[in-house]
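Listing S7. Sequence submitted for prediction.
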Amino acid sequence: MPQVDIEINNRLYRMGCQEGQEGRLRELAAYVDRRLKQLTGGGKLGSEAQMLVMTCLVLADEMQDMAAGRGAPAGLALDEAEVAAGLDQVARRIEEVAARLERA
């Protein structure tokens, strides 16, 4: 399993991913980092764990809105199973990050 170093809120995380998904993982990390900074005023709102949880909740809310047909970009067709799988993946990542933060 490939390991990829990603940076979110000026902190490095080593994450595992499927072969060939390294670039996608970096893209997703960059997106999460941008959204976190947008939502928290540059990453200065509460503890790091609180900022990450808030960002994940906002992203999950946006995904659910898109799945329900509210706010989906024009021409984007969403499969309910794909959205559910994506939400499961986000939940697992939240748990991984929270566990790492607790150990730090």
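Caption to Listing S7: primary sequence and predicted structure tokens for the chain studied. The beta strands are 3-8, 11-16. The mean pLDDT is 80.
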